[in-house]
Amino acid sequence: MMTTNKPRVLDVGQCDYDHGNIHHMLSKEFGADVKRAATGEEAFHAVCAERYDLVLVNRVLDADGASGLDFIQRLKSNDKTRTTPVMLVSNYADAQDVAVDSGAAKGFGKSMLTDPETRDRLASFFEQKKPQ
Fold it and tell me: Which of 6, 7, 95, 125 is the most buried (most CB within 10 A)?
């Protein structure tokens, strides 16, 4: 596997439209390499197989309607994946609270994707890797 200095992000459970927006923003702002996983199972295997700087998880996974919060709890309760940084993508404050209580970093809602506060929140995961 080739090593890269680009931030690596796994985007989990987004519809095509939202994934496109997230991918575009992360690529443009941080030079990130954004991979996609449709289901929790696919995402779990990806995180076990490769290192990601951040995993972004939709509150409700688009492909199968599964709970993104349950997926976050699974990641954070597994010895192999618990140290992988994860954020919930949701506009619901109560869902964000549950995610943080499960070990996730405070995430953001899709409506806040281009907000400076979201950029700053993401920067803490990516700035040291941003291409010069």
Answer: 7
pLDDT at 24 over 50: yes
Sequence-ordered list of residues with C-beta below 8 angstroms from that of 8, at least 6 positions apart, any chain? 32, 33, 35, 50, 51, 52, 53, 54
38 dihedral zone (left: phi>0; alpha: psi -120 to 50; beta):
alpha
CATH number at residue 25: 3.40.50.2300
pLDDT attached to residue 126: 84
For residue 72, CA distances in Å to 2, 49, 80, 104, 116 come to: 28, 17, 13, 7, 25
Q: How many domains does the chain have?
A: 1
